[in-house]
Structure prediction request, 220 residues.
Amino acid sequence: MKAGNIHYNCENDLPKQIALFPLEGALLLPGGFLSLNIFEPNALEMIEDAMMSNRLLGIIQPLSSGTDNFSSKLYEMGCVGRITNYNETGNGRLLIVLQGVCRFTLKKELVSKKPYRIAIIEFNIKDLQEHENSENVNRENLLNTIENYLVLHEIEHNWNNIVQTPTPILVNALSTLIPFAPEEKQALLEAPDIASRAQTLLALTERSLMKQTGAYHRLH
Prediction:
């Protein structure tokens, strides 16, 4: 897996512990991107510390909605991201872009004097593979459902570009961009492989269509 200028090939390329950035509704997948506007003092310090070390952060969701993200209970799985873009806004904020490297399982949070959370984690090393097998993905069914979703919501899109996008990139991009609920995004994150994630994405999108139309149907 390459993120920015760095190749991550094995577990030895990754740290044993990492700063955690709890964010409700945030989904970062291996190879994917997440843009963030940083303004809270503890988060600003965390980003600055990461920039001075390995540029890596652990994005993870809190279990409960509306709680303090820096003290709440967390899901067990998150995704490590590398800061590949860093900009100061001039008003005390930071705009950063994270590229997903590898999913992880939270093992133990550490006591720290820092104003942010640090934990020991276990990596899903399979995520470091550059290419995922997408042969078991029903691409035609997925494209039909996604097209229905885009048309129903009147979302501007370039269908030719979507059709030409490789399946793993398409599945991960749609998983990130469609505004699913936090628990639904967690299900997409925890899908063991691209075929399982595509199946979950299809089921969630169809359910969303059913809720909004009364019954799922083809729009053309």
